[in-house]
Amino acid sequence: MGHAAELLGVRQAFLRSLDAAKLLTPQRSSGGHRRYSRYQLRIAARAHELVAAGTPLEAACRIIILEDQLAEARRINTELQRDNRPGV
Question: Rounded to the nearest 5 degrees, what angle is found at the Cα of 81, between the Cα atoms of 75 and 87?
Fold first, then answer.
């Protein structure tokens, strides 16, 4: 966790708060240390950006979840449009 916090320029407590808010659920090493994926680090960076701009943590988590859902819906929509083109 210390390395992840250092990479993001945040305190370890901030990463713990994201875990407590259920925004991130990092894997655990055999020694019990939190291990974050690249995707989780991007999510944590976005959360930090929102919180630093004055957004409460709960609202930042909701925004990130909605942004992720929107991105997935757009991806699916693009696939469906591509699959339904005439001559495909």
Answer: 140
